[in-house]
Design goal:
Helix 1 packs parallel to helix 2. Helices cover about 60% and strands about 0% of the residues. It has a single domain, classed as Arc Repressor Mutant, subunit A (Orthogonal Bundle). With about 70 residues, it is mainly α.
């Protein structure tokens, strides 16, 4: 793997591991009913991974609420 070019934006400084971590954090946030605007990542790629996780977790959260009602 080549080292990231220092002239690229923050979006180039991510790995599969960091994407997975962002997704998992977003999933847990959605699963626990936290608002999506609390997304913590400035880098667009990681933010997208977090939001994808949040979407999936929030869908589970809503399904659980419907079953509990």
């Amino acid at each position: 793997m080549t080292p990231p070019d220092e002239h690229h934006s923050e979006d180039s400084h991510w790995s599969l591991e960091s994407l997975n971590k962002a997704y998992q954090q977003g999933y847990m946030a959605g699963l626990t009913g936290q608002p999506q605007h609390q997304q913590p990542y400035p880098a667009e790629v990681l933010a997208a991974a977090w939001e994808a996780g949040w979407d999936d977790g929030n869908e589970q959260f809503k399904q659980h609420q419907r079953r509990s009602a």
